[in-house]
Every structure is written in structure tokens, then in C-alpha cells.
Design a protein that fits this description.
Elements lengths: L1 E6 L8 E7 L12 E4 L4 E4 L1 H7 L4 H10 L1 E3 L2 H10 L8
Parallel strand pairs: 2-4, 3-5
Antiparallel strand pairs: 1-2, 3-4
């Protein structure tokens, strides 16, 4: 499942769109951040509890969930590694 959250950062004239993707394998990890934000694609790969926070009209809850995500540079090495290992390891 995925959704898109479009918001206007303070002081910016243009909107930013964040794609949020639920990854069931992340539910098996104990990660305080709830997921990973891939900076290059502006895509968040999240567990179920974090996905539910984005899938609501509560703007403050969305902002909080966004701020807690762990930022990573690449999807291929980080997230694919987690999925390939059966969600038993965390990214570097």
C-alpha cells in the first residue's frame, strides 16, 4: 500500500510530495523511527504503525512521523538488504 502526502515547508513557495510505502517486512524490525526516508526519491518505506500515522488527517501526527524517519541515501543497498535478509538486520 502507498499514499502521497503533499505539504508546503515553512518559507517555501513550492510544495513537496512524499510517497509513503508500507513494507510489511519492516514490522518485524524494532526500529524507533518507524521507517526510512530515501532522500534521493523523497520516498518513505515504513512499518504499519507509521503508515497509519500518515494515513490520517492529523497534520501534526504526520509531521511527527516524518521527523522520526531515518534518512538514507539509497533504496537499493539499504532497504533491499533488509528485505533480502528477512528483516533481521538494520541499515548502516
Amino acid at each position: 500500500m502507498k499514499l502521497t502526502w503533499t505539504f508546503y515547508p515553512k518559507g517555501e513557495k513550492h510544495s513537496v510530495s512524499l510517497t509513503v510505502v508500507y513494507v510489511p517486512e519492516l514490522d518485524k524490525l524494532s526500529i524507533p523511527s518507524g521507517g526510512y526516508l530515501v532522500i534521493t526519491t523523497n520516498t518513505a518505506y515504513v512499518n504499519w504503525s507509521t503508515y497509519k500515522r500518515f494515513d490520517t488527517s492529523d497534520i501534526e501526527g504526520r509531521k511527527d512521523a516524518f521527523q522520526q524517519l531515518t534518512a538514507v541515501e539509497e533504496f537499493t543497498e539499504t532497504i533491499k538488504g533488509i528485505l533480502a535478509n528477512g528483516a533481521t538486520s538494520q541499515p548502516r
